[in-house]
């Protein structure tokens, strides 16, 4: 399903659709319909665009400082091919991560992409979706007769790019045809209208990242407002998709009990009745590494994000670095409080994990 790239989004008070300020094309990308479509859109809309032999060779981003270049990179789109079709694992969310895009236009201070993308935080989209879906088919067949779940938001927020790529629509339709395939993705954006009419077969669970107002206000710039996310979640529920919420990162701040209680109260009050069916929650406490702390403090020097190693518990991370989580007593208090509030608001909901 091709997205509509005929015009720029309206500039109104609602959170705007992402429009890059600069687009790079890898040569082979223009051999694919999506690549040609995005190129035509960039030309039509007057978006500056350039060719590059590889995303790894982009060295001419404008900006007089690392901070300026970082901000510009977050508004830069690279259109290319996904050459590595070996999928990473994605526990505990799913069996595998399905790579539709890399990088995000959001400026969430705490995001692990600050570290994993390092000096190349630009946004990459992949035009060879058929190859990616063929690889997914192979993973499904290899695990038969077990169901195989794919997480589409490990390295990006694909909904924030859907108006440009159409990749989610293609993947949702593909998974609807797979008796043993399931898709999952999480988003901080609300632009779901293009997904509502897809015959999804109940095989795609769409989750919205939500948090206390304090967290969204202070640490999630350039994302959709809470009210927009909840309205979008209601649309998804009415369209029959399995719905979920990720509360992440759970942050211990002054007044956190009131903040998270208000979050669950608002969800219960504002969601339509359809949302109560097969509703899931995933709970992730805030964590950081020393590398992430250094990068975050450089890119967001005025951040209020608490990253004091002395107040945290050291835990060995998957990628070979210690990460800092809350001490057991605080973590358990967060888990218990949120679990109780969730089941009070949504008695039939399921909490998939707390980590």
Helix content: 25-40%
Question: N-to-C terminal Cα separation, in Å?
Answer: 36 Å
Structural class determined from secondary elements: alpha/beta
Strand content: 15-25%
CATH architecture descriptor of the domain at 20-187: 3-Layer(aba) Sandwich
Order of helices and strands: EHEHEEEEHEHEHHEEHHEHEHEEHE
> Based on DSSP secondary structure assignment, what is the total number of beta strands?
15
Describe the sheet with the most strands.
8 strands, mixed
Q: Strand order of the main beta sheet, please?
A: 4-5-8-9-10-11-12-15
Q: Examine the coordinates and then state which fold CATH places here, giving the name of the CATH topology of the domain at 20-187.
A: Rossmann fold
Q: What is the CATH class name of the domain at 20-187? A: Alpha Beta
- Which regions are unreliable across 5 or more consecutive residues at pLDDT < 50? 6-12
Radius of gyration: 20 Å
What coarse outline follows from CA principal-axis ratios? Answer: globular
Mean pLDDT: 91
Number of helices: 11
């Amino acid at each position: 399903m091709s997205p509509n790239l005929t015009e720029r989004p309206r500039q109104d008070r609602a959170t705007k659709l992402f429009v890059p300020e600069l687009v790079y094309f890898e040569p082979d990308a223009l051999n694919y319909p999506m690549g040609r479509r995005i190129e035509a859109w960039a030309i039509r809309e007057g978006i500056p665009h350039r060719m590059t032999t590889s995303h790894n060779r982009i060295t001419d981003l404008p900006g007089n400082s690392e901070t300026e270049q970082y901000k510009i990179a977050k508004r830069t789109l690279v259109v290319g091919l996904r050459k590595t079709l070996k999928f990473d694992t994605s526990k505990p969310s799913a069996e595998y991560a399905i790579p539709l895009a890399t990088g995000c236009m959001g400026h969430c201070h705490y995001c692990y992409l600050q570290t994993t993308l390092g000096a190349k935080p630009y946004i990459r989209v992949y035009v060879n979706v058929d190859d990616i879906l063929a690889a997914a088919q192979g993973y499904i067949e290899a695990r038969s007769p077990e169901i195989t779940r794919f997480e589409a938001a490990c390295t990006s927020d694909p909904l924030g790019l859907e108006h440009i790529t159409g990749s989610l629509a293609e993947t949702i339709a593909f998974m609807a045809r797979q008796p043993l395939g399931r898709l999952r993705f999480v988003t901080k954006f609300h632009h779901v209208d293009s997904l509502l009419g897809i015959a999804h077969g109940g095989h795609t669970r769409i989750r919205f990242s939500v948090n206390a107002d304090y967290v969204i206000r202070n640490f999630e710039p350039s994302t959709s407002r809470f009210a927009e996310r909840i309205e979008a979640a209601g649309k998804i529920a009415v369209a029959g998709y399995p719905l979920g919420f990720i509360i992440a990162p759970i942050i211990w701040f002054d007044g956190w009990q009131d903040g998270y209680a208000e979050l669950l109260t608002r969800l219960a009050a504002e969601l339509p009745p359809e949302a109560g069916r097969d509703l899931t929650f995933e709970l992730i406490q805030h964590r950081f590494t020393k590398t992430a702390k250094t990068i975050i403090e450089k890119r967001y020097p005025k951040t209020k994000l608490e990253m004091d190693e002395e107040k945290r518990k050291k835990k060995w991370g998957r990628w070979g670095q210690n990460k800092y989580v809350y001490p057991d007593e605080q973590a358990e208090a967060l888990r218990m409080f949120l679990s109780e509030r969730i089941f009070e608001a949504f008695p039939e909901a399921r909490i998939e994990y707390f980590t």
